[in-house]
Design a protein that fits this description.
Structural class: alpha/beta
Strand order of the largest sheet: 5-6-7-8-9-10-11
Helix content: 25-40%
CATH architecture of the largest domain: Alpha-Beta Barrel
Number of strands: 15
Shape: globular
Radius of gyration: 20 Å
Low-confidence stretches: none
Mean pLDDT: 94
Oligomer: single chain
Order of helices and strands: EEEHHHHEEHEHEHEHEHEHHEHEEEHE
Distance between the termini: 17 Å
Number of helices: 13
Strand content: 15-25%
CATH superfamily of the largest domain: Enolase-like C-terminal domain
CATH topology of the largest domain: TIM Barrel
C-alpha cells in the first residue's frame, strides 16, 4: 500500500449538552483526525484522546506530537499492506495507543475501500444491526436526570448507563429503578471508589444493575477480583483492559464478568479483535464503549460492534445526541427499536463531509515521504 501523504487535523466541536463524569465536565471536544492518502483513496481515523490526560495518560497534545513526529513518518517509511501489519510497524513506540489507533484504523478503512468490502466485513463482523444503549453524565439534579432518561427511552435506547461517583449513586439508582423497574440499567464509576467503599458498593446489588463499570483504580485487576467475590452485580472492566493479555489476566482471576472494548484504549482494530476473540472463547460478553467521538470514530465503532461477541448494547448512539452537525453523511441514527444499521458500502460506510471538516479545522499538519524517485 503506497502512502502518498498523511494529514493531521485539529477540529473543535461543541457538544449539544455538557457531559459530566467523575473526571469533570466536557462542553466541547478537540477532535484529532488522521487522513491517509493512498493511490487515489483516502482512509480516515479519529483519535479519541481528550484534552486532558484524565481517562488515560494520553491527551490531545501528546497524541498530535506522537503522530506528527513518530508514528506517521514510521508508517510511511514501512508502507503496510493491510491494517493488521500496523501494530508491528508502530511497536517501536511504547504506549500511545489512542494515537496509534487513529492511524491504524485509517489503514483498515483504506484496505476495505481497496478490496471493495465494508469495514465491518473486513473485520469479521456478522451482525446487520447493533443494539444501542446510552451513557448519561452526572446531572445538576435527579429530576433533570429523570427527564433525560424519559427522552432517551422514548428514542428507543435499550440500555441506560448512569455515570456515578460517591454522593451521586444509591439515591439516583433508587429513584430511577422505582420509576422504570424493567429497564436495562447500568452504572459507570470511572474509578471513583476505593476499598473503603466495598460495603457501600455492595448496596448496588439492590438495584438489579446489568453491571458496575470500573468502580476501582483504572489500572487494577486484583482488588476488582476481591470486590467481585463480595457482590452479586457483574463488574465490567474498561480502563484496566489495554490489550488481549490484560483481558486474559482479568478473566483468569475473575476480576469481571463483562468487558468494555474501546478502540482507542486498546490501540486500534487489530488489538480490539484480539480482545474480542479471547473474551468469546472464555464466554465473557463485550460491548463497545464511547469516547464522545465525532462521526468518523462513531463509524469505526459501528463496524467493530458488528463482531459476534458484542452481545450487549454499547455506547454507540445517534450523532444528534452529541453534535448539532456531525462530520459524516448520513449522520448516525437509531431506530425506534434501539438499533443502528451496519453499513454495507465499501470502507467505513459513511462519507466524510470534507467541507465541514475544512470549516472546523483549526490546525493542519502534512507528513509526506522524503524519498524521491
Amino acid at each position: 500500500m503506497k502512502i502518498d501523504a498523511i494529514y493531521l487535523r485539529e477540529l473543535e466541536m461543541q457538544l449539544v449538552h455538557p457531559f459530566e463524569t467523575s473526571f469533570g465536565v466536557t462542553s466541547k471536544r478537540r477532535i484529532l483526525l488522521v487522513e491517509v492518502h493512498s493511490e487515489g483513496l483516502i482512509g480516515w481515523g479519529e483519535c479519541t484522546a481528550a484534552e486532558h490526560p484524565h481517562f488515560s495518560e494520553e491527551c490531545f497534545a501528546t497524541a498530535w506530537y506522537m503522530l506528527e513526529h513518530e508514528l506517521a513518518p514510521m508508517l510511511m517509511a514501512n508502507e503496510p499492506d493491510n491494517g493488521g501489519e500496523c501494530p508491528k510497524i508502530l511497536s517501536r513506540v511504547r504506549g500511545n495507543r489512542m494515537a496509534k489507533a487513529a492511524l491504524e484504523n485509517a489503514i483498515w478503512d483504506l484496505e476495505a475501500q481497496r478490496e471493495g468490502v465494508s469495514l465491518s466485513s473486513l473485520l469479521g463482523g456478522t451482525q446487520d444491526a447493533i443494539p444501542c444503549g446510552v451513557s448519561l453524565g452526572i446531572q445538576k439534579s435527579i429530576p433533570e436526570l429523570m427527564k433525560i432518561i424519559e427522552t432517551e427511552l422514548a428514542a428507543g435506547y435499550r440500555r441506560i448507563k448512569l455515570k456515578c461517583k460517591p454522593g451521586w449513586d444509591v439515591e439516583v439508582f433508587s429513584k430511577v429503578r422505582h420509576q422504570w423497574p424493567g429497564i436495562m440499567l447500568s452504572c459507570d464509576a470511572n474509578s471513583a471508589y476505593r476499598m473503603r467503599d466495598f460495603k457501600h458498593l455492595a448496596t448496588f446489588d439492590n438495584f438489579d444493575l446489568l453491571m458496575i463499570e470500573q468502580p476501582l483504580w483504572h489500572d487494577d485487576y486484583f482488588f476488582h477480583s476481591m470486590l467481585q467475590k463480595q457482590i452479586k452485580t457483574s463488574i465490567c472492566l474498561d480502563e484496566s483492559i489495554r490489550n488481549r493479555r490484560d483481558a486474559l489476566a482479568a478473566i483468569e482471576i475473575e476480576s469481571c464478568r463483562i468487558i468494555n472494548i474501546k478502540l482507542g484504549r486498546v490501540g486500534g482494530f487489530s488489538e480490539a479483535i484480539r480482545v474480542h476473540n479471547i473474551t468469546m472463547e472464555r464466554g465473557i460478553p463485550v460491548w463497545c464503549g464511547g469516547m464522545l467521538e465525532a462521526g468518523i470514530g462513531r463509524a469505526h465503532n459501528i463496524a467493530l460492534a458488528s463482531l459476534p461477541n458484542f452481545t450487549l448494547p454499547g455506547d454507540v448512539s445517534a450523532s444528534k445526541r452529541y453534535w448539532k452537525e456531525d462530520i459524516i453523511e448520513p449522520e448516525v441514527t437509531v431506530t425506534k427499536g434501539g438499533e443502528i444499521a451496519v453499513p454495507k458500502a465499501p470502507g467505513r460506510g459513511f462519507a466524510v463531509r470534507t467541507d465541514l471538516v475544512e470549516k472546523l479545522t483549526l490546525r493542519k499538519a502534512t507528513i509526506q515521504s522524503t524519498v524521491t524517485v
